[in-house]
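A reminder from the course coordinator: this example appears on the midterm review sheet, so study it carefully.

Given structure:
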């Protein structure tokens, strides 16, 4: 191997590839492992959306990169219904699921602002924020979070502020379920000139207050990111959107158009129907709430101190153990479940685990039965 290749970028192991030994423990249970690790929806999408995938007649031609006008208008209507946000479809563009957008946005922005080299992101968060900074050869700088889940913006160092390319926020948070102050983040974006990218993919699963969006406070120097993966059980369709500041949306949209980043035409057609339908989301809200309440009771009966989140469909907690991998192994041994160790979400999260409510109720009842036998 040449010295040049040896010093090149080596991606870290994918987090979930590190769970093999814990999977083996959970699979030893009669009835098998109950996988509550990845936030993969298991409930069925609505029938009209599935039917639309094969009836659009849009598979022959190239789809629009930004998303069809009809799709973006449906996204604008949804923003208005959900958050009382009035925004033109010209300020909205689609993406191939939001994960690729999160991973690529720093790279594209760095091309525009080569003097900036720092991506700010929540210290406890979805790992792709930091990985996107790494891909862009930027400094990934975590911002501390207070007890209520809000970014401690006042603790960001002056040098980091001066070098910041962007700030990611995530509310409701994955993994903690905490809610941030999006009005304050909007003010921060416009006082500092640092673009705030607000990941709001769990916004419709907000339990302790009305759903919020940074776009309620304006669109200047901010971008909100949304997805159909969670709200509509369409993670496999890979469709989301980003909306907000016209200059940012236009710039990112033009680069993505040149790069051939486009949601497939039949999926754009189906996505419009999903964004125009709120009834299925109301049903899904009830489903996740029931699962959260049920599993909180199960885990408390097993002696764990667990609280229902302010938003999202994850339970985030710790025990007296100092390593989330140890706690994950204990839960696999006691309940036959697979969960995510907190280390996946930042160094500050090492003692915690995240449990996703992505199993049917019969599977959760099986977990409860195991817990009652084990005490």
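Designed residues:
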């Amino acid at each position: 191997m040449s010295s040049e290749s040896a010093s090149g970028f080596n991606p870290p192991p994918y987090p979930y590839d590190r769970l093999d030994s814990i999977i083996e423990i959970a699979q030893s249970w009669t009835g098998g492992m109950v996988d509550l690790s990845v936030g993969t929806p298991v409930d069925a999408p609505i029938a009209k959306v599935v039917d639309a995938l094969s009836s659009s007649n849009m598979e022959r031609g190239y789809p629009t990169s930004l998303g069809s006008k009809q799709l973006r208008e449906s996204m604008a209507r949804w923003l208005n219904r959900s958050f009382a946000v009035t925004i033109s479809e010209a300020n909205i563009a689609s993406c191939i699921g939001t994960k690729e957008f999160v991973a690529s946005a720093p790279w594209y922005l760095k091309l525009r602002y080569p003097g900036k080299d720092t991506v700010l992101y929540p210290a406890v968060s979805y790992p792709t924020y930091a990985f996107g900074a790494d891909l862009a050869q930027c400094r990934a700088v975590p911002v501390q979070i207070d007890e209520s889940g809000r970014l401690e913006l006042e603790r960001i160092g002056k040098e980091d502020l001066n070098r910041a390319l962007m700030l990611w926020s995530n509310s409701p948070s994955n993994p903690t379920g905490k809610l941030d102050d999006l009005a304050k983040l909007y003010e921060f974006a416009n006082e500092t000139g640092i673009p705030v990218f607000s990941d709001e993919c769990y916004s419709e699963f907000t339990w302790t207050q009305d759903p919020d969006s940074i776009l309620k406070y304006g669109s200047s120097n901010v971008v909100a990111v949304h997805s159909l993966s969670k709200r509509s059980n369409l993670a496999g369709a890979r469709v989301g959107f980003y909306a907000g500041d016209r200059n940012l949306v236009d710039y990112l949209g033009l680069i993505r158009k040149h790069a051939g980043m486009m949601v497939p035409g039949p999926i754009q057609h189906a996505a419009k129907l999903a964004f125009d339908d709120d009834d299925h989301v109301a049903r899904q809200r009830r489903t996740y709430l029931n699962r959260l309440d049920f599993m909180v009771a199960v885990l408390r009966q097993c002696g764990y101190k667990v609280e229902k989140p302010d938003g999202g469909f994850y339970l985030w907690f710790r025990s007296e153990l100092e390593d989330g991998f140890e706690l994950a192994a204990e839960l696999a041994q006691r309940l036959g479940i697979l969960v995510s160790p907190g280390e996946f979400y930042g160094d500050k999260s090492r003692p915690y685990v995240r449990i996703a409510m992505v199993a049917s109720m019969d599977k959760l009842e099986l977990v409860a039965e195991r817990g009652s036998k084990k005490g």
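The first helix runs from residue 3 to 6. The two ends are 54 Å apart (CA to CA).
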